[in-house]
Specification:
This protein is of the alpha/beta class. The chain has 3 domains: 2-184, 3-Layer(aba) Sandwich (Rossmann fold), CATH 3.40.50; 192-333, Rossmann fold (3-Layer(aba) Sandwich); 363-545, Thiamin diphosphate (ThDP)-binding fold, Pyr/PP domains (Rossmann fold). The chain has 21 helices and 21 strands. The strands form 4 sheets. It has a 7-stranded mixed sheet with strand order 11-10-9-12-13-14-15. Strands 3-2-4-5-7-6 form a 6-stranded parallel sheet, with helices on both faces. Helix 13 runs parallel beside helix 20 (507-519). The protein is globular and about 70 Å long. The termini are far apart. It binds thiamine diphosphate. Thiamine diphosphate (TPP) binds at residues 384-387, 409-412, 435-438, 461, 463, 466-469.
Length: 558
């Protein structure tokens, strides 16, 4: 039985659970796109450019566990690199597939368009090796199935992006057909000796401590076991906090939940709880400068158990050879009860008073109304900027999800990422909060939301500049050209779109706009929220000052 290289790839993408792939066409990938269409396991979704294509795939992969995108050589693939960097940093298995020069042109001395202008066409794969966990350059149809499988399998296991390069004359070349998908999906068995030793050491760590707190970090998204965490908390009886980048990873209506731990900008009570604990069980944390508020919120290593995707560190020893799923499942069956920390009750999040309908729209009132819109079926995507701080202070019903990108932190990510998320989870309500500065990077992707009739509700926070940057380090570079953001939707709709562009300058206008947005089910609704430039979340200012201080440390003199 034979198929073609492109159809083999297409079948594999369908087998691993993808229903869509993202693409921008170019002459090096046209035959591949035809093959993907002909095999038809996944629907082809078009993006305005390759950066957006990558972020859409990243957003899709967050909701669906994996994603795929197809670009053309160099002019496409190099644009996609920023988004693949994001997928690497954020642990999302995005399969980046690039068309490439005809095999006859490699090593021939022929000079090709879309290249750097020299005749060595290996540079793209070389670059990709740094930002993917596997990079396969296909040069023969016979070997293509093995290489495609290796890239996909490695991406799924490592929870990182992978790269596959397919020359334009091989996409429709005959190759063997795929076998069972279990070879890509099966998890390696745990090293039982290492897992047993890890559990024993965990027991020693926990028995020696009374006030144990669970701290959930953003790598848990990639673990696929967020749903198992309440059972672990129930077993241990201890308090649970989440890191800012993991907002929503533990149900906030669970009795053990004690808020977001983020150093000095934690939810009320969470800093004292975590920093006063004698044992902190950290699940999938990322302790970067942002998470530690400029290296101020660093935990004592001797009181910390670090569980990462492929092993744990505890009591000064490292244990590897098992997945975090295998570890958490085993721990949930045998962890000792450690309920000391749960005796401290949860302190309520300060409530935001409701503004009068004719009051000038404020950041607080906007956050209050967005929070009221978030139900247990909502995915809230929060862009880099003050939107992070607004998302973090919200009170979420169980089931609500938050997506943010605090490790990579690229502005512009959220618009295409929300599109990807909406395609992957069409039964959820998708709400996006994005600042005016960030929006200007990837705004045109709203046109694809119109095209694919995705009812995403976009809160465009027009605070007239890069306010987060203004709070960290001000200068003329933080002030941007204002746009008629609501007016853009008419341009994106053209003759046949169902997008809605609205503007709110008062509390009442925002409430009315949200009602219109809920009723608009055939396309996105962009609500431009007009705010004063000085109006932002208190925690942003506090956090920004500390991060700026860390950035401003003078070089060490030896
Ligand atoms: N370029 C990229 C691609 N990513 C970045 N993070 C930055 C530059 C630096 N940066 C971080 S936040 C920010 C900039 C320029 C401004 C965000 O402004 P806006 O979206 O308006 O959000 P606000 O803080 O006003 O809520």
């Amino acid at each position: 039985m034979t198929t073609t290289v492109g159809q083999y790839l297409s079948a594999r993408l369908g087998q691993i659970g993808l229903k869509h792939h993202f693409a921008v066409a170019g002459d090096f990938n046209l035959i591949l796109l035809d093959e993907l269409l002909a095999e038809g396991s996944t629907r082809q979704i078009y993006s305005c450019n390759e950066l957006n294509c990558g972020y859409s795939a990243e957003g899709y992969g967050r909701a669906n566990g994996a994603a795929a995108m197809v670009v053309t050589f160099s002019v496409g693939a190099l644009s996609a690199m920023n988004a693949i960097g994001s997928a690497y940093a954020e642990n999302v298995p995005v399969i980046l597939i690039s068309g490439a020069p005809n095999t006859n042109d490699h090593g021939s001395g022929h000079l090709l368009h879309h290249t750097l202008g020299n005749t060595n066409y290996g540079y793209q794969a070389e670059m990709m090796r740094h930002i993917t966990c596997a990079a396969e350059v296909i040069f023969s149809a016979e070997n293509a199935p093995h290489q495609i499988d290796n890239a996909i399998r490695t991406a799924l296991r490592e929870r990182k992006p992978a790269y596959i390069e397919i020359p334009c004359n091989l996409a429709n070349a005959a190759c063997p057909a795929p076998g069972p998908v279990s070879s890509l999906l099966s998890e390696p068995a745990a090293d039982q000796a290492s897992l047993d030793a890890a559990l024993e050491e965990t027991g020693r760590f926990l028995y020696a401590r009374d006030k144990v707190v669970l701290l959930v970090g953003s790598r848990m998204r990639a673990s696929g076991i967020i749903d198992l965490l309440p059972a672990l908390a129930d077993r241990m009886g201890c308090a649970v906090t989440v890191m800012a980048a993991a907002k929503g990873f533990f149900p906030e209506d669970h009795p053990a939940y004690r808020g977001v731990y983020w150093g000095e900008v934690s939810s009320p009570g969470a800093q004292d709880l975590v920093e006063g604990a004698d044992g902190i069980l950290c699940l999938g944390p990322i302790f970067n400068d942002y998470a530690t508020v400029g290296w101020r919120a660093t935990l004592r290593p001797e009181d910390t158990l670090l569980a990462d995707l492929h092993g744990i560190t505890v009591n000064g020893r490292v244990f590897e050879g098992f997945s975090i799923r295998q570890y958490v499942e085993a721990l949930t069956a045998r962890a000792p009860r450690r309920a000391g920390s749960a005796e401290t009750p949860r302190q309520p999040q300060p409530t935001i008073p409701t503004a009068a309908r004719d009051a000038r729209l404020s950041n607080d009132e906007m956050a209050r109304q967005i929070n009221a819109l978030v139900d247990s079926n909502t995915t809230l995507t929060a862009e880099t900027g003050d939107s992070w701080f607004n998302a973090v202070r919200m009170t979420l019903p169980g089931g609500a999800k938050v997506e943010s990108e605090m490790q990579w932190g690229s502005i512009g990510w959220s618009v295409p990422a929300a599109l990807g998320g909406a395609l992957a989870a069409p039964d959820r309500r998708h709400v996006l909060m994005v600042g005016d500065g960030s929006f200007q990077l990837t705004a045109q992707e709203v046109a694809q939301m119109v095209r694919y009739e995705l009812p995403i509700i976009i809160f465009l926070v027009n605070n007239h500049g890069y306010v987060i940057e203004i709070k960290i380090h001000d200068g003329p570079y933080n002030y941007i050209k204002n746009w008629d953001y609501a007016g853009l939707i008419a341009a994106f709709n053209a003759q046949d779109g169902h997008g809605l562009g609205l503007r709110a300058t008062t509390a009442g206008e925002l409430a009315g706009a949200i009602e219109q947005a809920k009723a608009n089910t055939n396309g996105p609704t962009l609500i431009e929220c007009d705010l004063d430039r000085t109006d932002c979340t208190e925690t942003l200012v506090k956090w920004g000052t500390k991060v700026a201080a860390a950035n401003g440390r003078p070089p060490k003199v030896n």
